[in-house]
Amino acid sequence: MRILHIAHQQLRKYGLTRVSWAKKLELGLIKAGHDVASFSDRDVAAFESPLGFKPVGRRRANRRLLEMAEAFEPELVIAGHCDVITDATLAELKRRRPGLALVHCNNDPLFVPENAARIERRAAVADAVFVSTGQGVLRQRFPNVPARLYHMPNPVDASIERYDASQQSQLPVDLIFCSKSDAHTERLALVGWLRNALPRGFVFRTCGSFGEPAVWGLDYDRALAASKMGLNLNRQEGQHWYSSARMAQMGGNGLLVFTHADNGFDALFPAETLVYHRSREELLRHVVDFHNDDARRRHWAANTRRFMHEALNATLFAQYIVEAALQQPFSHPYAWCQ
Questions:
Q1: Which domains does the chain possess?
Q2: Where are the alpha helices (H) located in the chain, listed in sequence order?
Q3: Residue 113: CA count within 13 A, CB half-sphere
Q4: Which terminal residue of the chain, N or C, has fewer Cβ atoms less than 10 Å from its own Cβ?
Q5: Alpha helices in 161-231 (DSSP H)
Q6: What value, to the nearest 5°, has the Cα angle with vertex 86 and ends 146 and 27?
Q7: Which residues, other chains included, contact 275 with Cβ-Cβ below 8 Å and sequence gap of 6+?
Q8: Please, which residues bridge with residue 205 across strands?
């Protein structure tokens, strides 16, 4: 099938990129046998901006997308985080190609007001919307949108999550947390408290916070590869099955992952995988206990990595989106649909 994938491809980062779930989706679509054409909205808008005049570049990017669709004749359009592309342009795509399936994929949290508004807007033109929050929450939050609503997990890909800390006993970093975002959150207060409470000699990296530089691209990969355990702290907790993409990045690389119990992942992940906490004291206790029992740390981390690569891999993720978009019978018992 011909699929047009609209997402920020980070072309102008020149290698200093964030780990991208959109890239994993594209890899999964290709591995699943689809012909994929990419359209990087922000980059096209920048390239099309005369003398850096952004309004002109944005208008031209929308025209270029319509031109690309005319040339490629997609059967499915997947619009990810592509705010340069207007709802009117997506509606025009559907008008020009009767029978075209169009879906929106959204990996941002619902507690960010502008994101909830974005989902409602896209749902007015898309056939289906896929969101990284659990489906029960979606139905409550958006009871009247015309599009079908689906949960989508954060995927892993063997070519990206290629390290395995669960097989290593001697690593220089005991615990890592990477983030430079402080909007809509108070999580750095927890990270600061934990830094002060951990025992002497414990190596805790906080890339992007507390004066430690952020890491991107290969530097981020290497930081994870050097770490035994990782903190998955969302900006806000308690959204069913919502997680930052860092959970897949850390768990897929074999780090032991600590995450909040209120997100409900115990209903998705097998036992002895993720480590759950509800208070800072409980988190501290778990971190110290696993630090002092490396065999147990490696066992739980290996279970997590195995489950992610077997059940949450990008190929299954991509094929699920295609099948749900086209309302086809599911070809696999997807773990997040049970």
A1: 2-155+313-337 (3.40.50.2000), 165-311 (3.40.50.2000)
A2: 21-31, 41-47, 54-72, 87-96, 113-123, 135-141, 187-197, 217-225, 246-252, 280-291, 294-311, 314-325
A3: 2
A4: C
A5: 187-197, 217-225
A6: 85
A7: 256, 257, 258, 259, 286, 290, 300
A8: 176
pLDDT one-digit tens code per residue, 40-65: 999 999 999 988 889 999 999 999 99
**pLDDT on residue 183:** 61
Task: Tell me whether strands 256-260 and 275-277 are parallel, antiparallel or unpaired.
Answer: parallel
From the CB of residue 171, how many other CB atoms can be counted at a distance below 10 Å? 15
The answer to whether the beta carbons of residues 261 and 136 sit under 8 Å apart is no
List, in order, residues 6 or more apart from 184 with CB less than 8 Å away. Answer: 109, 111, 112, 235, 236
The answer to whether 231 touches 191, Cβ cutoff 8 Å, is yes
For residues 208-215, give the mean pLDDT: 91
Closest CA to 89 of 34, 36, 30, 39: 39
Of 144, 125, 109, residue with least CA distance to 244: 109
All residues at 6 or more sequence positions from 327 whose CB lies less than 8 Å from its CB, including other chains: none
Q: Is 201 left (phi over 0), alpha (psi -120 to 50) or beta?
A: left
Q: Is the CA virtual torsion 62, 5, 109, 151 positive or negative?
A: positive
Mean pLDDT for the chain overall: 95
Whether 95 has a pLDDT exceeding 80, the answer reads yes
User: Average pLDDT of 1-11?
Assistant: 95
Residue 205 has what DSSP assignment?
E
306, 19 in Cβ contact below 8 A? no
